[in-house]
Design goal:
339 residues, alpha/beta, Rossmann fold, UDP-galactose 4-epimerase, domain 1, seven-stranded parallel β-sheet, 12 strands, binds nicotinamide-adenine-dinucleotide, binds thymidine-5'-diphosphate
Amino acid sequence: MADTVLVTGGAGFIGSEFVRQAVENGLYPIVVDRLTYSGDLRRLSPVIGNFKFYEANTANYSEILEIFNQEKPSIVVHFAAESHVDRSIFEPHAFIDSNIKGTLNLLEASKELAVRLFINISTDEVYGELGTQGYFSEDSPLKPNSPYAVSKAAQDMLGRSYYKTFGLPVATVRPSNNYGPWQYPEKLIPLAIFKAIHLEEIPIYGNGENIREWLFVSDCIEGIFKVLESGKPGEVYNIGSGIELKNIDVVKKICRILDDLIPQKKPYESLITFVKDRPGHDFRYGLDSSKIQYELHFQAHTSFEEGLYKTVTWYLKNREWLEEKASKLRDFWTKNYKK
Ligand code: NAD
Ligand code: TYD
C-alpha cells in the first residue's frame, strides 16, 4: 500500500515547497496547518486538488489525534513551528506552545498510530553560535541561545526520547538558513527586497558581519526527501549548502540585482542602514553536512547567484503578495528597529 504522508506546517514557506515537490513525485499529502500569521494556502495554489487540508493547531492534542485516527499516516514530516527569532524575543510563549507542546502531541499521536517514520524538522540554531572557525557536526553539543532555538532544541530532545523510550522511528533534520520564493518578509532576504523596492532604509543589525549559511529552499526539500527515502531512525542529519555569507554581503548582492533590473538614480546600497543589534545575536552558523552527503548521497546544487536571482525576480513578479504580507509588519518593525 502507498504511504500516507502527513505534513505539518505545509502552508508555511519550507513546508509548502515540500508539499509541491511531494505532489510532483506522485504523492497525495495530508496537510495540517493552523494558518498562523505566517501560514498561507496560496503557497499551495500550484498543486490545488492534489492534497488534503486540515486547519488545526498542533498544540491541541484532541484535534491532532482525531486527524491521525482519520488519516492513519505512515509517515509524518513535521515542519509546523513558530520560526522567527525576533518574535521569540518579544513573544516567547507561542514558541513553547507550538514548537514544544505541538511536537509532543505529534510524537504521541504518531506512537499511538504506529507511524513508520517521523521526520522532525529542526534547525542549525540548536547548536548555538560559532566564531570564525569550525563547523557544527550532528554530534556537536546543543547550546541554543534564543527562545526560538531553545524551543527547537527541546523539540529535538523530545524526538530523541520517543525514539529511545518507545522505539518511535524519528529522524531529525537540521537545515541551515533557507531562502527562496514564498518566504514571509520578516526574514532578512525578502525583507531587504521589500525595503529596497520601496526605496526605504534596509535595516542591518549591528555591523552586518554576522554570518549565515544560505540554502535554497528547493535544495533543502530535496535533502529532506533523501532522509524520507533512506534516512535511518534515531539519526540526525545536517543539511547545509556550504555557502556562508556576511549579512551585509547578502544585502549588497540583492541591491546589485535590483540595480540591474530596476535601476534608480542612486544605487540601492545607499539604503543600507545599520540598526541596534538583535539581543543575543548569534555570530555565525556553519554546518558540516558530510553525513548526508556520504550516507544519503545528497548535496545542495543551487549557487547563491542563481538562487538569489530566482528569489528576487519571484518577489518582483509576486509583488502584491509581498506588499500584503509586509503591510502587516509595519508595527513590528517600528518596535524592533532602533538606530
Ligand atoms: P514558516 O513560519 O514560514 O511556516 C510555519 C508554518 O507552521 C506556518 O504555515 C504556520 O501556520 C504553521 N504553524 C505554526 N504553528 C502551528 C501550530 N501550532 N499548529 C499548526 N501549524 C502551525 O516557517 P518556515 O520557515 O517554513 O520553517 C519551517 C520549519 O523549518 C520550522 O520548523 C523551522 O523551525 C524550520 N527551519 C526553518 C529555517 C528557515 O530558514 N526558515 C531554517 C532551518 C529550519
Ligand atoms: P533571519 O532571516 O531572521 O534568520 P535567523 O535569525 O534565523 O538567522 O536573519 C538572518 C540574519 O540577518 C541574522 O543574522 C539577523 C540578520 N537580520 C538583519 O540584519 N536585519 C533584519 O531586519 C533581519 C530580519 C535579520
